[in-house]
Amino acid sequence: MTETSPRLKVVLLFGGRSSEHSISCATASGVLRALDRDRYDVVPVGITKSGAFTLQPDDAEAFALREDDLPTVVDNGSRVRWPESADSRELTVVDSDGVESSLGEVDVVFPILHGPFGEDGSVQGLLELVGLPYVGAGILASAVGMDKHFSKTVLQQAGIAVAPWVTVPRRDWADHRAVVEERAEELGWPVFVKPARAGSSVGVSRVSSLAELQRAMEVAFAEDGKVLIEAAVVGRELECAVLGGRAGAAPRVSVAGEIVLGAGRFYDFESKYLGAPGADLVCPADLDDDVLAEFQELAARAFEAIGGAGLARVDVFLTDEGFIVNELNTMPGFTPISMFPACWLASGLSYPELLDELIALGLETER
Question: Is pTM, for the whole model, over 0.70?
Answer without folding.
Answer: yes
